[in-house]
Predict the structure of Cytosol non-specific dipeptidase.
Amino acid sequence: MESILEHFKAITAIPRCSYHTTKMKEYISAFAHSLGFGVHEDHVGNILCHKGAPKVCLQAHYDMVCIGDTHPIEIVMEGTLVKAKHSTLGADNGMGMAIMFWAMEHNENLECLFTVDEEVGLIGAMQFRLPLQSSYLLNLDAEEEGEIYIGCAGGMDVIASLKLHYMPLEEEIKLYEISAFSFTGGHSGVDIDKKIPSAIKALGYELLKHDVLLVSLRGGERRNAIPKSATAIVASKTPLHVDDTRLHVKSLEKGSHTKYIAQSSSIIKALGAFAQGVREWDRELDIPSMSINLGIVSDFEGVLRFDCAARAMDDENLAILAHETVAFFKALGFDAVQEGWHGAWKPEMTLFAQSVQSVMKEFYPHATFKAIHAGLECGELIMRQAKKIEAVSIGPTIRYPHSQREECDMNSVSNTAFIVQNIINTYKE
C-alpha cells in the first residue's frame, strides 16, 4: 500500500532513537489531532489516541534501535523489500506505526497506543498508567507475517562492573590493538538461536590463547543486540599473531600507553567463560526457553562495565538465570546487579486470539499461534489495566532487526494492514 509506505517514509525522516524521541512524539500527537482523535500523554511519553467508542486498541512503540548513520535514514527499495543504506531501518516498529496511521485515517472508532523507549527495556509499557477504553489489544511488533503471538519472554538486565586498577608497563613490552569488526549482529532475542557470532566473544576467545595484559577493552552496540564489533589494546612480551581470520591485529607505537589493567586475568577469564547464547530450549514452543547476551563492554571513568540481557519464557527461570549470572561475575571479582525486570507473557488461547486467527486464515490458511523469545509489550500493558484485557501480537515480515541488514517486505505490510482492518471490523458492533 503506497499510503503506508509514505507514512513510513515520513516516520523515518524524524529522529527517534531510544531516549531521543521528543520530535516523534510531537509528530504523533499532531497527526492524531489532525484526524480528530483525542490525545493523552503520560509522565514518560506514552501517547494514547482515541476516537469514538473503540473496542480494539492498536499498539506499537515509537522508538528505534539506531545503529549506523541514522541522521537521516536513507531508504532504498529492492523489489518489494524496504532497506536502509548505512543504518538500521527502524521498521521495528516504525512499520507498525505506519499501519496505525493508515488505520486512523480509515476508522471512526479506534484506539491507538504509541509507547516510548521499548528498545531499552520496555520502559514505556512498564510505566504506562492510562486506562484503555478497549477490551482488546492488537500489538503490531511481531516480525513474521502469518504468525499470531500469544506469549513472549520476560527479561532482566545484569550489569557487572569492576573498578580498574592500573600498573606501569615495562618499557620493553610490545603494544597491539586487536579488533573484531564487521560481524553480522542481530537481535538478542529473535536471533539468539541463529548461531550468529558475537564479536565480544570472538575477541575473548582469542585473548584467552595468549599471555597478554589488557590496556583497554570495549565492544558492542546495544545491550539487546548481538555485538558486531569489539576492540582490545593489549601488551605482550612476544610478537602477537591471531588465529581467527575475523580479527585484525596492528602494532602500536611504544609509549602510546604506559599502564595496564591490574585485573587483566579476571577480565579475560570473564570474557572467555561467559556462556553467550541459548541456555535452554523449549521443545513444546520450539523456541529458546532461556538465553543471555553480553551486549556491551565499556570503560567509563576507570570502571569496566559488562551489560548483559537475560531472557526466559517464565519468571522462575528468568530469576534463576539472572542470579546465576550475578554469581558468575562476583566470583571473578566484579560487582553485579540486576535491573529492568519485566515479566514473561504466558501464552494463553483467548477468544480474541481465536478471532484473530479466524481473520488471519483468510490470508494465511496455515496461520499458527506462536510465542517469541523476545520482549513484547503486551504482557506489561495487560498488567497495568484494572479491567480484563485480551492481547495478541501480529506484524509484517521484518528480517535482521537491530542490525544494518534490517529489511521489511512490503507485501507482508499490505496483508497485515488488511488483516488489522478486518479485525477492527469484527468488533465494530
